[in-house]
Amino acid sequence: MDKTKVLAKIAPSRSETASARKIARDTQNSLERHLPGNVKTALAGSVAKGTFLEGAGDIDLFAVFPKSYTKEGMFKKLENAAKKAFPNAPRETGYAEHPYLRLFLGGKRIDLVPSYKMKPGGRVKSSVDRSQLHTEYILGKMKPAQRREVLLLKQFLKANLLYGAEIKRKGFSGYLCELLVLHYGDFEKVMEAASEWKLPVALDPEKHYGPSRAIPDFKAPLTVIDPVDLTRNVSAVITRDNLGRFILLSSSYIGNPSEKYFFPASMDREELREKTEGRFFFALCFERPDVVDDVMWGQLWRVAGRLESFLKKAEFVVLGVHPYATESSCLLLFELRSPVLPKTQVFRGPFLDQHQHISHFIKKHTPPFFFEHGRINAMEDRKLRDISLAIDRFRKGKNFPSHFQHLAQKAKFFAVDSIIEDYPLALEEHFMVNWVPR
Amino acid sequence: MDKTKVLAKIAPSRSETASARKIARDTQNSLERHLPGNVKTALAGSVAKGTFLEGAGDIDLFAVFPKSYTKEGMFKKLENAAKKAFPNAPRETGYAEHPYLRLFLGGKRIDLVPSYKMKPGGRVKSSVDRSQLHTEYILGKMKPAQRREVLLLKQFLKANLLYGAEIKRKGFSGYLCELLVLHYGDFEKVMEAASEWKLPVALDPEKHYGPSRAIPDFKAPLTVIDPVDLTRNVSAVITRDNLGRFILLSSSYIGNPSEKYFFPASMDREELREKTEGRFFFALCFERPDVVDDVMWGQLWRVAGRLESFLKKAEFVVLGVHPYATESSCLLLFELRSPVLPKTQVFRGPFLDQHQHISHFIKKHTPPFFFEHGRINAMEDRKLRDISLAIDRFRKGKNFPSHFQHLAQKAKFFAVDSIIEDYPLALEEHFMVNWVPR
Predict the structure, then answer these.
(1) Which site from A129, A139, A404, B284 is most exposed, i.e. has the minimal number of CB atoms within 10 Å?
(2) Domains contained in chain B, CATH given
């Protein structure tokens, strides 16, 4: 495989980089003119580190305040400075742990984040404060040639829906990509190492821990100790599913490196029609609730998990679940082995000497009962025999978190044809995330 | 419930008892005339103890030899004596732990068992030797009124296919019935106690063990220490299934004592047809191999267990298994939820970081694979989709113990109509053993 060919497509051009840096610098200068003298701005994130993918050069600026400011005071000062410096730029307030300002200037998204001045090892007040240290750490450690390796890793992950630590994805953050490349050396070595990971895996790039001080158990399948904060696991958010898929992909890549891992062919509707032939899919389609992404995705995943458990308990064989969203809709896409179940259902009961449980079971179920290796079981006509009945029942239960509650009744049940018509990408992602080969 | 009415049906008449005892005494006298002077005969078993059910008064006689005789010598002497004493009586040789002689005299089956003279606590050489001690123990302990209670318990068990310690039944021996009545006092008290048993249960009627010497763990759901041999569990053979069913029956009986527990109505073919309507049964029907009962039943149960596991592994829902035999045939009767399974089958695979297992799994199964909570799974067209295919496959495997091997290919597959026609009792027993209410 020719890495240069991949890089040619994913690395920003010299002029794209220069322009991003220039916009950042200009913004910093304009802002600082309207900020108190003891407040400095600093470029952070992937533009600062030179590790952004082509087209992804959005700008993160920190406004670094002395500790004497309150959170509210910092935001106020920053907002006023932005209003004065860029009176005409579209502006919105975003909320992460704390409010920050988002501007749109010269076609770029610029996040202005109020933050306290940090010293390495100092007590971090928020993840925002920590980001300054991350930028400094990477800038100090990374060889220029390694930046291309980070790009390869990011693209590999992005193409396989594993890139991004936000709740939507629960994948690999940009910072984690940088740390992995630093730790293993380059992209290929990350692939080689990951293809042999046996979970749980724990990495401690800066050797904060050692023979006399064991790495704490973060109860995560992958632990990467943050070089700038030894109490933090950089990869805490990654799910076991995503990690497993990363391991499998790494191992296939090592076996047969190919550009397809970076640029998978997309499927058109015809292809999706063929692929879904004889299989069963449905989607529950909600209006998108008007809340910030992380909250929406957190709740969408929660409904997905509940519906999955509900269907499994009703004995449907669930082959895949994929939550998906556009700007206006949220989808829960499911693949089942079959939309219909056998007429009767078996309920496993207690052992025959569990007197209390036995009487409870006998009251709850319909006779006759049958025995099986010392237990009593019931067999009854199945109540939720097909998927539409099951979904109706699910809707009636208390299964929807706050922002979906009022949307549940209006949610539409989509069969596969409508999914292909209206949300082909949801299906394509499902095949990528839940099947191999997709 | 009127116990007297039950007893009127199950207790032998005065004349039946007298006649059994007379036959026993006459046989003893005739035999002893042809046996060496130092060999005595003794009546044992339920006739000796006065605990036999009406019509079940077969006679067990022990010929008690001095220790100087060999096993073979004892049998030879006994056989010669029997030949001389009853030259015209039909005679056969039976095999338990050791050979014994069976005669048919005056419409009774008489077992003549060679045995060494035992003293209580003496080292038992075989279960036959122990039987003498059992008879002596029960005769010494049991009040005459308790014999009726033993009859009630035996009939209760017999009616529910729980009576008999032979491999066919794996239920309660006559001696165990006697011990339970002695231990708890009477039939009702046995029922009350059993209805509250929480397994494992251990009883030690003669208090061989105590605070300073715990009852050994026989790894059985029910342990009853033999009063005449503290190293033996009288109820070792009872299965957890049978015990569970006994507990459940005791508890129903306590809730609503009724004669139906002693004399369940039998089902005619019409009733069986109604009952089997809309359900799925099949039987695998073998010629009965020409071996002693315990060996035949041991092997029949083994095939039953293997076929059950095989069908469950193939994902059939097994609702009941009942091995059954007549004089000429053996049956494996099965009830399944359905004779047909879904077109596809899901194979659960290893977690994605189990590299060796993953490559093995991927080689063994057909792509595509799907992920589920960190595992890889395969979905393939099912190979054993209906029961006749499954049975064919089972027949081809190494699933048949010695005496069934040559019979497996000729075994017939019976559908429910043929079962009702030819083996209605097999079905009736199945409903009794595997269903409640049947």
Answers:
(1) A139
(2) 9-139 (3.30.460.10), 142-261 (1.10.1410.30), 269-340+384-434 (3.30.70.590), 344-381 (3.30.70)
